[in-house]
Amino acid sequence: MAQRPALDFIEVHSENFFADGGATLAVLEAGRAAYALSLHGVGLGLGSAAGLDAWHLERLHRLVQRVQPRWVSDHACFARVASGLHAGDLLPIPFNDESLALMVRHVQQVQERLGRPMLVENISAYVGWQGDTLAEPEFFNELCRRSGCGLLLDLNNLFVNARNDGLQEQQALQAARRWVDAIQPDRVAEIHLAGHSELPDLVVDDHGSRVCEPVWQLYEHSVRRLGPRPTLIEWDTAVPALQVLLDEAATAREWQHAQAPAEPEATC
């Protein structure tokens, strides 16, 4: 904060600021005074059949009222079970009509409480469900249409999922491009970029390295198809010097300038 780098917006995890006061909230309010703010949640569990946690939603509402962010987002996943236990992770949902109806109800419930539309993000999934009846882009198109929410498009997650489906890099890139081509452009409100780790038998979305070249190529394709979108560089583990993050954000801006004339937004 002391350096005040040239950023278009900052994004924080909502749950880190659910307290009514203290040092963390003071830092957030200082950040909000300097930059546009995005609240990105990891705990709502919008696809949980057990329903939404009323306490969690109320704390989110209070935070939104306090800091008035530009965007509020969470993930298309489940996290809570009938006993009330929270998995502490983003678990994949089935892509079928029943799951879609549940997601629509929960997204509408959140939006009604917050008094604003929210964004929903596609996740990286390491297991899947048998019997899916909807393609993932079709699921998100319908979710946005029925609920009025927007899409937070995570391009690294698309690439990681394709790699974990057994595809090599160029095949995975092509599969991710087809995913982007299938989505309704006007529903995409924000883009996430991140790095990942290649293990012997798994690709992990760990947000711990620079954006890889195939994901930059996917970003180029996405900007060409969708137009410029506010773009966040996620880096949560092995966090480097600030200048490395700023360089990644600058690269995103360069891709946007190269593909579209409109003024872009990119941050880290």
Automatic annotation (TrEMBL):
Recorded hits in SUPFAM superfamilies, A to Z, give: Xylose isomerase-like
Xref: Pfam families: MbnB_TglH_ChrH
Q: What is this protein called?
A: DUF692 domain-containing protein
